[in-house]
From TrEMBL:
DNA topoisomerase VI subunit B transducer domain ranges (all copies): 88-238
GO molecular function: DNA binding; DNA topoisomerase type II (double strand cut, ATP-hydrolyzing) activity
Protein name: TOP6B
Superkingdom as given in the UniProt entry: Eukaryota
Species, as recorded: Arundo donax
Source lineage: Eukaryota, Viridiplantae, Streptophyta, Embryophyta, Tracheophyta
GO biological process, one term: DNA topological change
């Protein structure tokens, strides 16, 4: 199935080309088959407003420039039942495979946001933006690591000139979501699928500025950030608890972070819990209050900390 035009976002040149290339011979099937959200009732209403001599039987090749301009004005102001919703039929977004592939690439120890998907239209052509953000992937450097895709093909050149890069660097308040670009690697994965993508040139090196696409990418990334915020807050809390536990019996506990494997975590926490049953002594054999083992409340905190780290996702 071919992607259909979105009526209220189509531009005049796209409409002209669409009428010239359409497989439909007359205006009625052109409207009902080549546009989303336009059925027979809506098409009849549009044709009535155009006041065509032959009505619904008017052939596309006989429509004049003025009549085409009139049709464009009607479509631009067209209000349909879906209230602006854009259908992604005829497109092939990556979907869940996008997230699973990223998970395989970055590893299980990395925090992933949910996959954010947005569908809208550019110059009448529908497109879908899929976005996902990763935190603390070992194979990435600190700061932003941007991975761009267009119609499933990776974009590897001119990253600094790309629209996705501009949005990630200048339109997202990372600190608002407890994400510190100075301290951790942040992976930005954005895929755009559509029948008309604004590339810089025929080489398709990067995406040019287009307001509706910029807004859609921004909304998709913000949705990812909002999904990550509670996970980042949990991460900070776990780190604070681990730093507190470091004042007790395990010297290496300060190094316990999300890159440590689960067996090592189990060993450390079992050791702490075991030491909680022993009363440390000072050099003279008396109880050392400064090195006292965890009390019941602190033992519960240790268990809670372990559960939070163990249930990373």
């Amino acid at each position: 199935m071919l992607a259909r035009f979105h009526p209220s976002t189509i531009d005049h040149e796209t409409l002209k080309k669409g009428m010239q290339c359409s497989e439909q011979g007359t205006i009625m099937p052109f409207l009902t088959n080549d546009f989303m959200h336009i059925g027979a009732t809506e098409a009849s209403d549009i044709i009535r407003k155009m006041k065509l001599c032959s009505g619904s039987d008017t052939e596309l090749i006989n429509i004049t420039r003025d009549e085409r301009s009139q049709l464009h004005k009607i479509l631009m102001g067209y209000k349909h039942d879906c209230s602006g919703e854009v259908s992604s039929e005829g497109l092939s977004p990556i979907g869940d495979y996008f997230r699973s592939s990223i998970r395989q690439y970055v590893g299980d120890a990395t925090i992933l946001s949910k996959l954010s998907t947005r569908a809208t239209a550019y110059m009448g052509h529908p497109f879908v933006v899929e976005a996902l953000i990763t935190i603390a992937a070992n194979k990435m450097k600190k700061g932003l690591n941007i991975y761009r895709f267009a119609n499933r093909a990776p974009l590897v050149l001119e990253e600094r000139s790309d629209l996705i890069t501009s949005v990630a660097k200048h339109h997202i308040q990372w600190g608002k979501y407890s994400i510190s670009l100075e301290k951790i690697p942040v992976g930005i994965f954005v895929s755009l699928v559509g029948t008309k993508i604004p590339f810089n040139n025929i080489l398709k090196e990067y995406l040019c500025n287009a307001e509706v696409i910029e807004t859609t990418i921004k909304e998709a990334l913000i949705t990812c950030c909002e999904d990550l915020r509670p996970k980042m807050v949990d991460q900070e809390e776990v780190s604070r608890k681990l730093d507190h536990l470091a004042t007790f019996h395990i010297e290496g506990v300060r190094n316990v972070r999300k890159d440590i494997d689960e067996d090592a975590l189990k060993t450390i926490f079992r050791s702490i819990l075991k030491q909680g049953k022993v009363t440390p002594q000072d050099d003279e054999g008396g109880a050392d209050a400064s090195q006292a083992p965890p009390a019941d409340l602190e033992l519960e905190m240790i268990k809670d900390t372990w559960n939070r780290v163990y249930e990373r996702q």
